[in-house]
Amino acid sequence: MVTPTAGPGKEQRILVLGAGVMGTGITTLALRHGVHVTLVDTSDAILTAARTRIAAELRMAQLLTGPAEADPGELTTVTSARTAIGTATAVIEAVVEDVTVKARVLAAVSAAAPPGTPIITNTSSIPVDELADAVARPEDLLGTHFMNPSYAIPMVEVIRGPRSGDAAMAAAADLLAVLGRKPVVVRDAPGFVTSRLLHPMINDAARVVQEGTASAEDVDALMTGCLGHPTGPLRTADLIGIDNLVDALWVLHKRIGDDRSLPCDLLLQKVRDGHHGRKTGRGFYHYEEVFR
């Protein structure tokens, strides 16, 4: 169901947990729309690197989508959410695609957040209700699946868990309206819609390369030239992050038992070799500019 666009409402101040690819991408999007962001990670070194990446992404966003329509938001980076949690209008968790890690982070932040603060887990595959037992108030929890790069993709998959409340859903709609993003609300399920369809296809494409039927370049050329895929599945894998892709495939395989979602050997080897895509400089392709 496509939700109606919500009004901008009160000034937004968001707390983003995790300064990886998705956390910095969401932060970039928010800053471009005048939203103040407190970005949290475990060390000053990680946060310094995140500031460098965000500055680069802000420049890239301007090249791709034009000048921002709002004065830029203010970015604060901290190693503890404690000082900012009381003033946040929403919390977006964007740590690794691991149930145990997400549950631990969500438990800590939800215990400190004022009641009624929407707690948003950004996930490509993990059902929201699997995480709901970890939070203080399950009615405040919902899911999003921002695509990468968040500042260039105008639609966001929004996941309403069985225990997600109306107030949290409305607050998330208000935030996405401020961010200029169109939400599509889907029911909670492993992989939701986009990952359930896309990730097994990428796995199949990698398996074709593994079996020697075609090169990565030729697979992507056929998918773009014959079937209209915008970038090709293997370039998409590099953009997602092959390590994140494999994590999501394991979630799908374990929860729905689909053998198409069992990560193929080539993907597993790339993860072992540290060839995770654009963020490491090498995946199915080589990249001169590395975005960590």
Indicate the structural class. alpha/beta
Order of helices and strands: EHEHEEHEHEEHEHHHHH
What is the makeup of the main sheet? 8 strands, mixed
Tell me which CATH architecture of the largest domain applies here: 3-Layer(aba) Sandwich
Helix content: 40-55%
Q: Describe the global form.
A: globular
From the N-terminal CA to the C-terminal CA, the straight-line distance is: 34 Å
- CATH class of the largest domain, named Alpha Beta
Q: Report the average pLDDT across residues.
A: 93
Strand order across the largest sheet: 3-2-1-4-5-6-7-8
Total helices: the number is 10
Say which CATH homologous superfamily of the largest domain is assigned.
NAD(P)-binding Rossmann-like Domain
As a percent range, the share of strand residues is: 5-15%
Q: Supply Rg.
A: 18 Å
| Poorly predicted runs | 1-8
Number of DSSP-assigned strands: 8
- Could you name the CATH topology of the largest domain? Rossmann fold
Number of domains: 2
Protein name: 3-hydroxyacyl-CoA dehydrogenase family protein
Pathway: Lipid metabolism; butanoate metabolism
Family: Belongs to the 3-hydroxyacyl-CoA dehydrogenase family.
GO molecular function: NAD+ binding; oxidoreductase activity, acting on the CH-OH group of donors, NAD or NADP as acceptor
